[in-house]
Amino acid sequence: MAAVTDILRAKRDSKSLSSTEIYSFVSGIADGSVTDYQASAFLMAAYINGMSQDETYALTMAMRDSGTVVQWDRSLSPLADKHSTGGVGDKMSLILAPLAASIGIRVPMISGRGLGHTGGTLDKLESIPGFRVDLTLEQFQKQVADTGVCMIGQTGQLAPADGVLYSLRDATSTVTSIPLITASILSKKLAENPDILVFDVKCGTGAFMQTREDALILAQNLVSISEMSGKKASALVTSMNYPIGLSAGNTLEVQESLDILRGRGPADATELTIALVEEMALLAGISNGSELCRKNLASGKAMDVFTEMVEAQGGDIAAFEALPLAPVQIDIRAPRTGYWCGPDALVVGNAVRKLGGGRYRVDDVVDPLVGWQQEVPCGAPVEDGQILGRVHASDRRAAEEAVRVISSSFRWDSPTEPVILEVIHS
Ligand code: URA
Description:
Transferase, Pyrimidine Nucleoside Phosphorylase, Chain A, domain 3; Aldehyde Oxidoreductase, domain 3; 4-stranded antiparallel sheet; alpha/beta; 13 strands; 47% helix; 426 residues; 3 domains; 17 helices; Pyrimidine Nucleoside Phosphorylase, Chain A, domain 2; binds uracil; globular
């Protein structure tokens, strides 16, 4: 077995590591025999010198195997999950999971909390009174078998090496490496062990990947490493220069998800969700996924599955719909007539975070009621004085500050790009 220092020297000198070397290094991270400074040196060398496809695959599998790999009764197939690289107003998971389940695809979904300016599925779900995201893996598996869908939080049992490496990446400025991102995302998704993975790789001001080129490379990497590991996979590259849908903020986004599940939500968020489920359906051999989704949104079947999932996890939708608004609302009106492109996604994400809707430290408690709600979709003609949207805040000063920054990011009179920019099949 190669010594840790030999592995580090090889990566420092741009030599390829074998799968055995990568496995031994990652098991050392998981059992503590590789120190944080050695792991950090590896990350920096991998960041600077890159990793080949074979090395990325080996790193992904070694990280997956650092913990439990969920075992499913394959009579439950097709099992599918979606991963989004995160955006502003990105509530797709809440709609996608029950919608996919409503057309016969089982969805075991393990999600995260808000990160930086982007929201997190768990924070959104927890704005539903009583909803529990901390089920055990056994409860998770049982619910997927019984109701077709379950949405929980990351457990320490799945890919624990990623937990160690992710915090070291944060501390060593090595987060934005495509091989390291690929291995991090996929190790957790492969530990969940579905048959099918669909990725929504966002690009633009409010996304992790700023450029379409980088997003495309990440999307291709995610699809090819998933396939090397025996999964069916596809990816969409989608725009995140403007928030998706009409709201950003936990309670507001759950309300919008209910609207979409009831067939009366905004077109961009509805169409993106259907496109993601359609990808899952195609990989599952269902050729009319889009048609089935539209039918199940219109008939209420997708909403029924969501209700069943929420009840199974202790949540109360009636209590959610009776929640009060945040104490303060301030409308923003159009200062002119024209073609309104919308607010900048990053500005909205940061504003919502500052209002209390996101975190600066892991132990911050989020305020579920605050956020940004649009009356007009991005890319619409508006009249001078028309209400464009409103800020929901816990106090007037915070609301006024959010109004100021969001208004100053409005863009006007330029062509809006489509939400879906690229589709990557194998
Ligand atoms: N999400 C992850 O889980 N890991 C990354 O590296 C980036 C986004």
